[in-house]
Amino acid sequence: METPSDRHAYPAHWEADVVLRDGGTARIRPITTADAEHLTSFYEQVSDESKYYRFFAPYPRLSAKDVHRFTHHDYVDRVGLAVTVGGEFIATVRYDRINAQGRPATSPADEAEVAFLVQDAHQGRGVASALLEHIAAVARERGIRRFAAEVLPANSKMIKVFRDAGYTQKRSFEDGVVRLEFDIEPTEASLAVQHAREQRAEARSVQRVLAPGSVAVIGVGRAPGGVGRSVLDNLKDAGFTGRLYAVNQAFDGDVTEIDGVPAHRSVRDIDAADPVDLAVVAVPAPDVPEVVAECGERGVQGLVVVSAGYAESGEAGRERQRALVRQARSYGMRIVGPNAFGVVNTSPEVRLNASLAPEMPRPGRIGLFAQSGAIGIALLSRLHRRGGGVTGASGVSTFVSAGNRADVSGNDVLQYWYDDADTDVALMYLESIGNPRKFTRLARRTAAAKPLVVVQGARHSGIAPTGHAVRATRLPYATVSALLRQAGVIRVDTITELVDTGLLLARQPLPEGPRVAILGNSESLGLLTYDVCLSEGLRPKPPLDLTTAASAADFRTALEQALADEKTDAVVVTAIPAVGEGPSEDTELAAALSAAAATGPTKPVLVVHVELGGLAEALSAAASTGPNAPDTPPRRPTAGPPEDPPPPVDPTPRLIPAYPAAERAVRALSQAARYAQWRRDAAAPGKVPEYDAVDEQGAAELITELLAKEGDPRGADLAPEDARALLSRYGIEVRSTLPAPGPDEAAAAAHTLGYPVALKTTAPHLRHRPDLGGVRLDLSSEGELRRAYEDLTQRLGKPTELRPVVQAMAPRGVDTVVRAVIDPAAGAVLSFGLAGAASELLGDTAHRLIPVTDKDAQATVRSIKTSPILFGWRGAAPVDTPALEELLQRVSRLVDDHPEVVGVALEPVVVAERGLTVLGASVRLAPPPARDDLGPRTLPAAY
């Protein structure tokens, strides 16, 4: 008999694509009544030992009753999930809600018994770990807070899955069975485990694309030219170290090779003993599905799709793109593209140029990601060339041009770069950020290890580029940029700045502070550099003019002295050519500067030159001929300490970048200085303090009650009294107001509150607009109040339109505004600024991601341009900023603890010399999303 719960709607939002430990992909979805055949086939491929571990007894086959039980779920008290590859089950997990006696139960019982079964061929791929994350998220959604599992002691793999998940466990042993019990609420430890697994899996999935042992180019023409043939030629010319195959279904039977590369009509025809790791797809879009199917059946691990005709071409192309991603992931493959320019890996062990770039980039330590092929070409060219522009040419380690980034995105490449030993600096050109919340998290972690420089195109249009589907954000671009900078991202505005900054960071150490020494043979150029330093927030010393008669030896001596000065953090050398100087003088000066930088203290050195191509070339040559030149592999540490350890050697040459303009050099240096300061600050992070008068449980109960009362699934703004009640649960007291529909009621309200009082309107079009005359302050008597009431209604409208209220006056101070909002893309964001039209017009507002630490709160208060007003500007008394910082953290805590709180606005908050007063508050509640950022790791949906 079918019960009501058996008819619970199929939870489609539980479906998810995941990356496994080895970099392959799989799909997790709920098991349905139509899966009987899949389940039976899956079980037949599981070994007898694994079956024994699952059922604690020999269990060779499933009975019809078993199959019915394992495929019929109510998706509330009984839930089953399956992991599929190619549409077939490779693992299952199931929970059954139980009561305290271990018997089947329904809500409000909050414990469930969980059991896993993984096909032997897929054990060791992290399947069970991914399943545990997802089944725990499902259980939490259904009101379950605790899992129990019974495991045989010999089943060490399953015990390890539970032990390594990061949950606090209780373990017991009875009747030969290990019983594990653990809460499934995310903890700091479980999230750390989850993020570490996510990083390893996604990095491995990118590595399979960037370091293949073999590549098949599909769509190669017999004649030179065309996209497929060009990619094949580029792979050959780069000296790819693996096997190459040329594939085209149009090849005649007598075509066995193309320019020395084995040729086949299909990847299926390639010898089964030779694996094909990567396929570059360069066929018309309508033919791609057949190619993907052949690659999936052949066991190809990844695809680079350079074919166009997808989301960039309209809605039909977007649907074609969705189908492409779904099809590739069903076979466990990841995709770069479609409409991609390609990928490059300059490692001597790989030498992969699976791109449309006709020339292999110079090997180097810079990782490069570009969503645009055209911008990717420009960046590769700038990094590759010597002389002109910024000199001190540097190469790339890896390059990815993701095109429509339907699957592999900048987030995935960041995961790869994070622990890539060949990449010291990451440069990214982004036209959209599909998941800003995750990008910010990954950027913060990456930036703590190596610089991440980002330029974003299409930032002012407010429209995602054609072919890019991104989460909608309500935050302005400036706010998103501020949040990225707080995560350690070095934000620049142009690709010129991207290269300028990247070259400096790739070859020079980070400055320890903002103090800059300037020296050179041109007083004017030195003064110009000095001015630019000031405008960029650096602290320059007066320029040292060596005069135009200075020799190379004079430059070396001056540079050595500047570097030795403990009060100097960086040195900018300015140089102009003397009349009659030639290449030999350029080489001599370059050698002198390089020698001084190499032997002096470790501080960044930059050169500003004027029409001095010879010096620029010489500076590059001076580094490239050193004992650790780029062509010489850097020394790698050996296992164990040597008996007589040599002195430390910098594995990369101290190449000095030379810039053709002071503005470009100093801007790059200022970016490096700010990033260095961020690194120092990040090394000592703040904490989220515990405050008194916080009733988290009481707030949760009130939120549940208010949501039920409102009844709107889209959420609702709380009434003023409800907002005050909720905020008070977190120690945020809002000064009450009394309605004044008439002058008599206003007088009565003032009598209740006590004089002096304020009379103000609450009409939406006049709220928080004192400039429109909707507020009357310091009314000290009934007569003043009545006159003010009459004047207000005569000027602005009837009381029914104005909705006047009376409020007791607060101590004098500075009016500020505190807001918090849940953005669908960026997550929870706290904002702070001074109240008033001037701050709004100038955009003088600080933003921080929630949760906010004590250091974040201090920095937020001090980061707005008008902050001096808070600290005693022009002789005024300083206000109580510690109280303000505490308020910021209380609001942050409220929003962080309760995802149903999607909006808070405190306006105005009057900060006095001692204490503060919140005069107005609004709160918006909405049902929490089914999945939040604490949920299990998943790949973005195919869009």
Explain what the structure shows.
The protein has 943 residues and is of the alpha/beta class. The protein is 35% helix and 21% strand. It contains 27 helices and 39 strands. An eight-stranded mixed β-sheet has the order 1-2-3-4-5-6-8-7, with helices on both faces. It has a seven-stranded mixed β-sheet with strand order 11-12-10-9-13-14-15, with helices on both faces. The protein is flat and about 105 Å long. The protein starts with 15 loop residues before the first strand and ends in an 18-residue tail after the last strand. Residues 1-6, 386-390 and 624-652 have low confidence and may be disordered.
Name a few traits of the molecule.
single chain, 943 residues, alpha/beta, 8-stranded mixed sheet, 7-stranded mixed sheet, 27 helices, 39 strands, flat, disordered N terminus
Query: Percent helix among the residues?
Result: 25-40%
By DSSP, the count of extended strands is 39
Low-confidence stretches at least 5 residues in length (pLDDT < 50)?
1-6, 386-390, 624-652
Total helices: the number is: 27
Mean pLDDT: 88
Q: Kindly provide the radius of gyration, computed on alpha-carbon positions and rounded to a whole number of angstroms.
A: 33 Å
Span between N and C termini? 40 Å
The amount of beta strand, in percent, is 15-25%
Label the structural class. Answer: alpha/beta
Largest sheet: 8 strands, mixed
> Outline, from the CA principal axes?
flat
Adjacency order of strands in the biggest sheet: 1-2-3-4-5-6-8-7
